[in-house]
Amino acid sequence: MTIERRSFISGLGLVCVAAGCGSGEPAPNEPGAKQPGFQLQDFQPQSERFGETYGLEEFRGSVLLLPLYAGWCSTCIGCADILNDVYKQWQSEGLNVRVAAINPINALHNQKFLVEVCDFPLLQDTEQQNAWDALLGTKDDTYVYTPDGVLGTFIDFQADLSQMIVSEAGKAMLRKAIVDAGG
Hints:
Layout: H1 2-19, E1 39-42, E2 53-55, E3 63-67, H2 74-92, E4 97-99, E5 101-103, H3 111-115, E6 122-124, H4 131-134, E7 142-145, E8 151-155, H5 168-180
């Protein structure tokens, strides 16, 4: 039993070291964390920066809503479609918000499914940048960054699917997170 407990604690220590625990800096999915510095290619033909490679600093000055959506996931595609309409509504209301989504490495060949349902920037993760891992994220996670690039809210939809954008409560929760972040 003692050996197992030590192994668990040692493993937890490795996870903490990888995530930056104990460094005085919040983990990438904890409020107060700075935007990571990865650079990804925009594969959304309707985006102003289509085909270009850039980082999240592109969105500074506005609140950034950054979901992790996979092009092979029907739930993600449905959420991207709804988010596209909600985003346009937020802009018409004068909210200072921008949206970009990151497609995972294993969905490279499924980009078209996201492109078809939204017109906000879509960024492709790569093995070299490994953005999803850098964010400590999983499918459907959403990050809300303040205009100066600090994480205001992390939403783990795996923990509470009732707050997804498909519900009115989810839309209201996201809007509140955007307003709270300075939108």
